Amino acid sequence: MERQSHSGFTLVELLIVLAVAAILFGVAIPSFTGLIEHERSEASLNDLRTGLHQAREYAIRNGMQVTACRSTDGSACLAGERWSEGWIVFEDPANRRDCNAETDGRCDHGGRVLSISPGLDTGAYITTNQFVSDTVRFSPLGDARASNGTFTACNAEGEVLRGMVLAFSGRMRVARDGENNAC
Question: Where does the chain cross the membrane (predicted)?
Answer without folding.
Answer: 12-36
